[in-house]
Amino acid sequence: MVKRAGHLLGKSESAAEAPRAFTLVELLVVIGIMAVLMGLLLPAVNTVMKRGSVSKARMEVNAVVNAWKAYYNEYGRWPVDNNNWILGTYPEHQAAGERGQPNATSEILMNEPIMTNIMYPDSSWWNYNDNMMCKLYNPKRIQFMEFRKDSVDDSGNLVDPWGGVYRFMLDVNGDGKVEPANTNLTVFDTVIAWSLGPDGTNSADDIRSWQ
Ligand SMILES: [Ca+2]
Ligand SMILES: [Ca+2]
Question: Which residue from 30, 65, 97, 132 has the highest number of Cβ atoms inside 10 Å of its Cβ?
Fold first, then answer.
């Protein structure tokens, strides 16, 4: 105890010899330097964050493709009826959208939300027994992908880091390629998925599973 008290005393003695406090001018200079450093760092931080969002979208676009392929492997079919429509969805979203299909639109939006409805049977958004899409298309109640909380909005839509809904298309006519209606695009795969990217419209910054 005595030794500790002596130590404390020594400390307070050296505190008495401590350098004087900063003057206002010195403080202002320090604040100025910090402001300049922040100004230099912020664009770099923004770039890193933007890159982070793009990689997250890329990861999720690939996860969507893999989930649908796993779904097909499990059930040996896509969740569509004879007209290649996804049942239980609004007309503007129900077309599977392959070129040449009747009434096909160019894409399927995931709002309804199709992905989470079918692939996340025990999510907190709905009760399995009330979820007709899941009962119809995923009777084995398999969860085909991980849905991160920050990637699903309040209505259960799977959304990209900019809040846009992911798009996907399936090779519903079984010819080994996906061909969106109203485009010249042909992708030799059974599933494609994409995000509209930071600007939320069709443009060069889209994140596409096939590029
Ligand atoms: Ca096809
Ligand atoms: Ca875009």
Answer: 97
CA distances from residue 67 to 16, 34, 62, 93 in whole angstroms, order as listed = 68, 47, 8, 19
Indicate the pTM of the whole model.
0.75
Q: Round to whole Å and give the CA distance between 52 and 150.
A: 14
Contact indicator for 209, 56 with CB cutoff of 8 Å:
no
State the pLDDT confidence band at 199, using cuts at 50, 70 and 90. very high
φ and ψ of 22, to 5 deg? -65, 145
Q: Among the residues of 76-207, which ranges form H helices?
A: 91-94, 114-119, 132-137
pLDDT digits (tens, 9 = 90+) for 105-148: 545 655 567 888 888 887 766 677 777 888 888 999 999 998 88
- Helix then strand then coil, in percent of the chain rounded to 5, is 40, 10, 45
- CA 174 to ligand 1 centroid distance, Å: 5
Ligand nearest to the CA of 200: 2
* pLDDT for the residue numbered 9: 47
**For residue 207, which ligand has an atom nearest its CA?**
2
CA of 70 to the centre of ligand 2 (A): 28
Token pair belonging to 151: 């990637």
